Amino acid sequence: MSAMVIGVDAGATTTRCVVATLDGVVAGRGRAGGANANSSGGEISATLGMALAAALDTVDRTAVRFGVLGAAGSAGAGRERFRAAARQAWREAGLGGEMATVTDLEVAFAAGTAQPDGVLLLAGTGALAARFRDGVLERRCDGYGWLLGDEGSAVWIGVRALRAALAALDGRGEPTTLVTTMRAYFNIEAATGEEVAQALLHQAFAVPPAELGRLAPLVSEAAHDPVAARICARAAGKLLHTYDSVGPGEGVTVIAGSVLLNPGPVSRAVRAGLLARTATPPRPALDGAAGAAALAVGRLTGTPVPPVVHARLTGSTHDPSRE
Question: In what residue span(s) does the ATPase BadF/BadG/BcrA/BcrD type domain sit (predicted)?
Fold first, then answer.
């Protein structure tokens, strides 16, 4: 029986799980809702359990030897809360192998490269930059959550679009097509500007903060509008400033998160800025759960993950051996 590992990437809006062999062949995948203690809402262990159960549906659970579970919001004060939830989910899934918890930074960087040195720039629901040396997180910048930081993130963009729409409705700001965009998204049929503003207010506060990140693609689509264009330009500037705060230094640059991996004005501007700074295109981290699985392979075997195994796990189109 081939030994298996598990990798979990628990984000603010989506939790993904991968079960794979030690040579990088994926045997199962699972998916559930968000599991960020700061912004997702709900019971973390239950969400992790759903993702694990789906991935293990056709897999012999006794073959699992090691698992790495990473999550947004699991650093600092959130570390023990996530670790306890992960242990509970692991146990309730009937798994007997060892388990380790890390932050979403480790799994995102590992998803983009097999190398130990470099910088991760992440902009999805949240946003931050992190420098790694010898596989260890050396320094980070931002990632302080939707209320206090995450500058340039999807939620940051969504909140500013809502602010711009409200300002346009009450006369504090210039007219913008974002009003129409927000009305359509929230299905608001109110007649007067005041009624629309109050309906927007009600709808925005009725969802978990992480859900506001779903507005970011709509802002990108509306970038022909001067107000939306300025929001996108500011987001890109914030992200590049965050990157500069940890410095390019040695190693590769990995980008992660929906804002940077999906096409749009923010992604284009940031990628161009990174290319100008490093003279090398950034590596995309396409599958955080696969990155966590790669970490699990390395921890179980006690050796660096071979580039071919990393590429097989993560679906990389580049050759990691040339990094």
Answer: 6-296
